[in-house]
Amino acid sequence: MKINKVETFVLSDKLQESFFFSQWEYSERRICIVKVSTDDGLVGWGEGYGPADVIQAGIKSIAPLLIGKNPIEQETLWFDMYRKTLDYARRGVLAASISAVDVALWDLKGKALNLPVSVLMGGQHRKKVVPYATGLYFSKGENLIEKLVQEAKNYVDRGFKAIKMKVGLSVEKDVAIVKAVRKAIGNEIKLMIDSNHAYSLREAAELARKVEACDIGWFEEPVSPEFYHHYRELRGKTSIPIAGGECEYLRYGFQQLLQNDSVDILQVDICSAGGLTEAKRIATLASTRGVEVIPHVWGTGIAFHAALHFIANLEPIPGRVYPPDMYIEYDRTENGIREALTAPEIQMKNGYIDVPQLPGLGFEVDEAIVRHYSTEIMI
User: Fold this and answer.
1) Most distant CA pair in the chain: distance in Å?
2) pLDDT tier at 275 (50, 70, 90 boundaries)?
């Protein structure tokens, strides 16, 4: 079996209503996916996290390395792609391009061997995962707190056991919003906050101190990802667990977070940090320091399924007879591509999502949907 084609698609969905967070506004969901095909008719699908058009260019630049190669040997192919880009792209978007291809190769390998990816990764420590609803972004207009409170209540009504909300407007505004949301959802629902590195160390410490009483599950990206020592210092100033890693790439970037004792929770994004191959290595690094791993997930059902398999394979830390539930990020913002691209439909039952047991990543891609959302004319 040999790879004979690597195809990329940039998919675009114009939003009915824009939303924003501490850094910028979204009016469109734009995502790059990749399809890797073999000479015997099998295909695997992957996805990159980041600027879609640049990721597409990156995949096209490394695709010739894959043609004629055996997709089963995904670690060898990963190293070939890494070595090809090492001199000029040790971090960033080209790492996301490698990630997209790597996810597709794992999908292909699972289909070729008729096994779920998580089994191929070494086995499933769990068969179901707790999704947390990512939402509560900011919108323009009046009554923001009322809108966010209602959105949070809707997630609880739909059965979510955990919610992550955005902060980063200002310490004063954030405190008011967080307190209102916590009051609305009660004390049984896990609540996390994410500032997308909006704050200085002083501001982040102030915000953490003022919302500690709200029982915050973790404070995500409180400060710039460049300041590892600020992460470490913030951990000493609050009882709220500190999370980060969305902006890191490869095991070498995550090693910096770990060596600096920067986080309580490591948030590897499989579709940008190096794919499933590298994410498994990163998880091993984290385990040597007893640091919890909860992946960042943003995109389509491809990324979500990859994260499900990754989490299924994660070793519990610490091990015990009845290990705690593991969480997966479940983006609930408007995204027509996410909802329609893959089948079967992702379903939450009693607050859990089952780990797919079908071969590969456990989904089929509707290529009519690919054509519908593609930014290029497809025949």
Assistant:
1) 60
2) very high
The set of catalytic residues is 296
CB 132 within 8 A of CB 172: no
Same domain, 82 and 156: no
Do the beta carbons of residue 82 and residue 98 sit within 8 Å?
yes
Share of the chain above pLDDT 90, in %: 93
Does residue 127 share a domain with residue 110? no
**37 falls in which pLDDT band (50, 70, 90)?**
very high
Asked if residue 344 is part of any domain, the answer here is yes
> Is residue 125 domain-shared with residue 96, that is, in the same domain?
no
Q: Are residues 349 and 265 in the same domain?
A: yes
For residues 252 and 349, state if they share a domain: yes
Model-level pTM?
Answer: 0.96
User: Domain total for the chain?
Assistant: 2
Q: What are phi and psi of 48, to 5 degrees?
A: -110, 145
Interatomic CA distance for residues 281 and 150, integer angstroms: 40
Q: How far is CA 342 from CA 47, 112, 115, 146, 364, in A?
A: 12, 19, 18, 33, 6
Give me the amino acid identity at 144: L
Give the CATH number, domain containing residue 96: 3.30.390.10
Cα separation, 267 vs 247, whole angstroms: 9
* Residue range 317-332: mean pLDDT, rounded: 92
| Cα dist from 194 to 8, 60, 281, 291, whole Å | 31, 34, 26, 19
Cα 235 to Cα 258: distance, rounded to the nearest angstrom: 13
Average pLDDT, the chain: 96
Nearest to 47 by CA among 371, 328, 304: 304
Residue located via tokens 């997930």: 297
Residue in the structure block whose two tokens are 């997209």: 100
Residue 174 domain-assigned (yes or no): yes
Q: Whole-angstrom Cα distance, residue 283 to residue 124?
A: 15
Report how far residue 197's alpha carbon sits from residue 167's, in angstroms, rounded to the nearest whole number: 10
Q: What is the pLDDT of residues 285-298, one digit of tens each?
A: 999 999 999 999 99
The candidate with the shortest Cα–Cα distance to 350, out of 100, 159, 109, is 159
pLDDT at residue 24 is higher than 90: no
Domain that includes residue 178, residue range: 119-362
